[in-house]
Amino acid sequence: MATPKKNIITSDKVALYEKLIATIPAIERKGAANPYTSLNGNMFTLLHQSRLAIRLPEDQRDAFLKKYKTTLFEAYGTVMAEYVAVPDALLKNTKELQKYLAMSFEYVKTLRPKPTKKKS
């Protein structure tokens, strides 16, 4: 029987993620165990098990997948259709990755806000 993967996010990956997020001051990092960003209830980046996922519009997603020879992001056995898996080498290149973060941020602004879940 396979052992479940542990959620191990290294401090260096978190530091690289925070450096990337800081390139756009309007973006706020959320989440403690699994850092992520969202706008109007729509997540657009996620650091999960030391792997970064970025949500991109379809035309940019296809180009990203080809250029960086990567795949759609998968978490808990489920493919996240709009998210690309960012290669580690690219995560270390904040300058190059920042343009994709900007694309993602602009894309998420076009999505319908999700209703808030109020606790009763």
Instruction: Order the strands across the largest sheet as they lie in space.
Output: 1-2-3-4-6-5
Please write the string of helix (H) and strand (E) elements. HEEEEHEEHH
Q: Sheet with the most strands? A: 6 strands, antiparallel
C-alpha Rg, in Å? Answer: 14 Å
CATH class: Alpha Beta
Structural class: alpha+beta
DSSP E strands, number: 6
CATH architecture: 2-Layer Sandwich
Q: What amount of the residues lies in strands?
A: 25-35%
Q: How would you sum up the global shape?
A: globular
Q: How many structural domains does the protein architecture include? A: 1
Query: If helices are DSSP runs of H or I spanning 4 or more residues, what is the number of helices?
Result: 4
Any low-confidence stretches, pLDDT <50, length ≥5? 1-5
Helix proportion = 25-40%
CATH level-3 fold name: Yope Regulator, Chain: A
Mean pLDDT: 91
Cα separation of the termini: 41 Å
Q: What is the CATH homologous superfamily assignment?
A: YgaC/TfoX-N like chaperone
Give the helix/strand layout:
Elements: H1 11-21, E1 29-30, E2 36-39, E3 42-48, E4 51-55, H2 58-67, E5 72-75, E6 78-86, H3 88-91, H4 94-109
Antiparallel strand pairs: 1-2, 2-3, 3-4, 4-6, 5-6
Overview of this protein structure:
Helix content is 34%, strand content 26%. The protein is an alpha+beta fold and 120 residues long. The chain has helices at 11-21, 58-67, 88-91, 94-109; strands spanning 29-30, 36-39, 42-48, 51-55, 72-75, 78-86. The protein has a six-stranded antiparallel sheet with strand order 1-2-3-4-6-5. Residues 1-5 have low confidence and may be disordered. α1 packs across α4. It has one domain (11-109): YgaC/TfoX-N like chaperone (Yope Regulator, Chain: A, 2-Layer Sandwich), CATH 3.30.1460. The longest helix is centred in the last third of the chain and has 16 residues, at 94-109. The termini are far apart.
